[in-house]
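Thread title: Can someone regenerate the structure for this chain?

I was given the following input by a collaborator and told the matching structure tokens would be attached. They weren't. Posting the sequence so someone can regenerate them.
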Amino acid sequence: MPLNGYRSMCEEHQRTIVSSEQGRQHRANNPGACFVTQYQIDGEVIRDGLRCDYLLMNEDKSDAYLIELKGTDIEHAVDQLESAAQILRQALRSYHIKYRLVHTKARTHAIHGTKFKKFCQHHGKPGEFIHKENILEESI
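Best answer:
Regenerated them for you:
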């Protein structure tokens, strides 16, 4: 079910849904023309506190993608994803939550840091957490 009270940024059966910011991009391909919705979380759905940038939902498959487009502060990105998931937990209770992080060149110590490693371990199921530099493209 789309987020009540908010308007989706994409068409219901859009084939390609792009979330972008400052040269970083998450590109979701929807080859089956599933019913999808996209929301700007940062400043729209969640106005205060830590939050990620976008939420993309494949309504037909009950998948919810929390998307953070970040520079090099990987640890802060993890905090933003976790906070958004917590705030939206009730609204997304019937969805499989997936985390996506698109960042610029990550600092080695951040990728090997405790916070990032714990997040990866906690969300270690295949496809649950994916991170990539600059552009992440996937089929949803």
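The CA atoms of residues 15 and 128 lie 22 Å apart.
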